[in-house]
Specification:
Elements (H helix, E strand, L loop, with lengths): L7 E4 L23 E3 L17 H6 L3 E7 L6 E7 L2 E7 L5 E3 L11 E6 L5 E6 L23 E6 L7 E5 L1 E5 L6 E5 L2 E5 L6 E5 L3 E7 L5 E8 L2 E8 L4 E4 L6 E7 L5 E7 L14 E7 L5 E6 L17 E2 L4 E6 L6 E6 L7 E2 L7 E6 L5 E6 L8 E6 L5 E3 L6 E8 L2 E7 L6 E4 L4 E2 L3 E3 L7 E6 L5 E7 L7 E7 L15 H15 L3 E6 L8 H4 L11 H13 L4 E11 L1 H12 L7 E4 L15 H13 L13 E6 L8 H13 L3 E6 L9 H19 L4
Parallel strand pairs: 38-39, 38-40, 40-41, 41-42, 42-43
Antiparallel strand pairs: 1-43, 2-35, 3-4, 4-5, 5-6, 7-8, 8-9, 9-10, 11-12, 12-13, 13-14, 15-16, 16-17, 17-18, 19-20, 20-21, 21-22, 23-24, 24-25, 25-26, 27-28, 28-29, 29-30, 31-32, 32-33, 33-34, 36-37, 37-39
């Protein structure tokens, strides 16, 4: 490879004689071994020369679909599809038949994000470019462009074939109730666009605008603004051209919602507990309602002391104001995240609408406001299904079957759609009431169902995981896979997140090559209750989650079909941290590892609320919880992979590790991607990373050549 954007790859001269540069060959994005079923023919867009003999690349290129949105008043849906790094937008109208609506053709590392439909579903706004996780930060440039592509907001008609229209630079689009005007934001500016003219600035605020919401009459714009250590709720009046902040307090104000008539605004207000009392059961959050005309604020509900007294929400919107006058919101009163309802007047107790849910992941009310749909795992902690519950709490109905995993329910008018996966089908969009596909339904028929397993950690904690059985007979090499987050849960199916969909493909490939792989859902992950997620001594406070990883390694090594001398480990982000920690503490158990953008030195400033003596103890505890704290014991070889424009885990973390390993004569290999971010933007970079990982693992653990 000659491009300056290519991955730089080098082998430590201390112990490596075989180079990895052959792995930077042609990128295959053919689809042999992958079937596609859909409502329209599908043409593969080739971003790189195809290598028809590379079945792994063909599977990694399987289309991934996500970002599903629906129109408020019409059965219209939109989502994005990433096929081998080529990102495009798909739409489905009232006929339920999806079609590709944009025609991008390159694996150029340019993200599509922020999809939103107007109420009648005739227009779609979306963002191309920028970093959806850090939308107001520096622009990424992971592809071959001489200058970083701009973060551009587009609008298109969902019907027809007209090209998208650029309306300005920014993100966070919100359609006005008239379905024409669009409010959006950029670097603290709030902008307004209409089809009759150019976008113009209507306000500039100090912090980062996180959400824009129109009032029902289209005369006001509500927004959430993040500032340093707190957040605010602001309201812009377009007629008077004024801005005011509502209910401002110490702490965070989030998830603002208008009442149906627009006269009031509800929001969640919360404080974070002090570091030295992080397990305090004092009341840290409440629901508040502001009268728009007078500005008067009323607390309509407060979390009582005890379980659930600290705020924790779902991955989506966490507060809705229903036509019935009820507010619905998440609460961990039972130690599990359930959804509750309380009168917006404050005259009544909170009612648990999901008492049998175990853990709710997402929820949203039905369009008529009489019921709610949610995704949860009742009866099986390693499942994910959709349910509907009447708001009186008297009737709950399962909407999806037990053998599917359903995520992110979305209404388009009165039709319900969701993102669905299983062991052989990656994320795709389904109409739930008819269980029919909105677009393509890719499949990898050769994939086998992982086995759900549990085992005990050394302190008695029950740990869940998925076992990918390696093909072949006799004792085989094995690997632990550790996810990132750490607030994540892997399931025995394709993930609805692109990063972990790729990880699932990698684990299936390892099993096909003869490796037995155990994916460990270690403590501090989600969907196993609050006590598991907020485990004592986790992370910098003692790395207690490593107990589960070590227990998984020992559980694997003790299996009759595993060669205990050939057990490795791999993972990314927090999983990279745990990979490095495993190699540093237990090279006697883990013979090799692959570390994607891991954290290697955990020490950070200690809160000033600690006493001087306690601050010293906290610094030592952080150091002991770091891979660097046990670096002297590290002996096993490792492959270190990192993008040098990573905004989540600094590239310097891997530089530090490389220097320390070099000084100690520990063998390692390295793979660096100039300009790449944390969740790699280019398919090419994922493919090169995984090819390098497979080759490294084969060399070190003696699997398939």
């Amino acid at each position: 490879m000659t491009s300056s954007r290519s991955a730089s790859i080098r082998t430590s001269s201390l112990a490596r004689t075989k180079g990895l540069t052959s792995l930077l060959g042609a990128v295959c994005i053919g689809l042999a071994g992958v079937s596609l079923a859909g409502t329209v023919p599908f043409a593969v867009a080739h971003a790189q020369p195809a290598d028809a003999t590379d079945s792994f690349a063909q599977k990694l290129a399987v289309p991934f679909q996500g970002g599903l949105v629906g129109a408020a008043d019409a059965p219209v849906f939109a989502w994005q599809m990433n096929q081998a790094g080529v990102r495009n937008i798909w739409v489905a109208g009232p006929d339920g038949k999806g079609r590709q609506r944009t025609d991008y053709t390159l694996d150029d590392g340019i993200e599509l994000s922020g999809l939103t439909l107007n109420a009648d579903g005739t227009r779609l706004a979306f963002v191309r470019g920028g970093d959806a996780e850090f939308p107001d930060g520096d622009l990424p440039n992971t592809g071959p462009a001489l200058v970083a592509p701009r973060q551009t907001l587009y609008v298109l008609d969902t019907a027809g074939n007209a090209a998208p229209e650029s309306i300005g630079q920014g993100h966070g689009a919100a359609f006005a109730p008239d379905g024409q005007r669009i409010a959006f934001t950029r670097e603290g500016m709030i902008m307004l666009w209409s089809p009759s003219g150019q976008a113009y600035r209507i306000a500039k605020v100090t912090g980062e605008v996180e959400e824009l919401i129109w009032s029902p009459d289209g005369k006001q714009i509500l927004f959430q603004e993040a500032r340093s250590g707190h957040s605010l709720i602001g309201l812009i009046d377009l007629d008077s051209q004024t801005l005011r902040y509502l209910g401002s307090t110490l702490g965070y104000a989030s998830d603002p919602a208008f009442s149906p008539d627009g006269s009031k605004i509800a929001f969640i207000q919360y404080l974070e507990p002090p570091a030295e009392l992080e397990n305090s059961t004092a009341s840290f959050w409440s629901l508040r309602v502001v009268d728009v005309a007078s500005g008067a604020v009323k607390t309509v509900w407060s979390a009582p002391q005890g379980e659930g007294s600290q705020y924790y929400g779902t991955r989506g919107r966490n507060l809705f104001w229903l036509k019935s006058g009820q507010l619905i919101f998440p609460w961990e009163r039972t130690g599990w995240l359930h959804i509750y309802a309380v009168p917006a007047t404050g005259a009544g107790d909170a009612r648990d609408l999901t008492p049998d849910a175990n853990e709710v992941e997402n929820f949203r009310p039905t369009p008529d406001g009489k019921a709610m749909v949610y995704s949860a795992n009742p009866g099986n902690l390693d499942s994910r299904r959709l349910f509907r519950v009447d708001l009186d709490g008297k009737r709950t109905k399962a909407l999806t079957p037990e053998n599917q995993f359903a995520f992110y329910p979305v209404f388009g008018g009165d039709r319900l759609a969701a993102t669905v996966t299983d062991a052989t089908h990656p994320a795709h969009m389904m109409l739930v009431d008819s269980m029919t596909a909105l677009g393509l339904v890719p499949q990898v028929p050769s994939y086998r169902q992982p086995e759900v397993v549990t085992f005990k950690s050394d302190d008695g904690v029950t740990v869940h995981g998925q076992l990918f059985h390696g093909v072949g007979k006799g004792k085989r090499p094995a690997l632990i896979f550790v996810h990132g987050g750490p607030r994540r849960q892997m399931v025995p199916a394709f993930s609805a997140m692109y990063y972990y969909s790729n990880s699932y493909i990698m684990n299936q490939e390892l099993a096909a090559r003869g490796y037995t792989v155990l994916s460990v859902n270690y403590r501090s992950g989600t969907n196993y209750g609050r006590a598991f997620r907020e485990a004592q001594g986790k992370a910098r406070a003692g790395a207690s989650e490593y107990r589960d990883v070590l227990a998984g390694g020992k559980w694997l090594a003790a299996r009759s079909d595993v060669d205990a001398k050939r057990v490795g480990i791999w993972g990314g982000s927090w999983g990279g941290y745990l990979t490095a920690l495993a190699l540093a503490r237990n090279s006697d158990i883990f013979a090799a590892g692959v570390d994607f953008h891991g954290v290697h030195q955990m020490v950070r400033p200690v809160a000033e609320s600690f006493s001087p003596e306690e601050r010293l103890r906290q610094y030592q505890l952080q150091w002991d919880s770091s891979p660097m704290g046990s670096i002297a014991k590290w002996r096993s070889p490792v492959l270190i992979i990192h993008g040098d424009d990573d905004r989540s885990v600094p590239f310097s973390q891997s530089l530090l590790l490389a220097r320390e390993l070099t000084a100690r004569g520990v063998p390692f290999e390295e793979l660096a991607f100039p300009n790449e971010r944390h969740d790699f933007y280019r398919f090419h970079d994922w493919l090169v990373s995984y090819r390098a990982s497979l080759a490294f693992i084969d060399r070190e653990l003696g699997g398939k050549k």
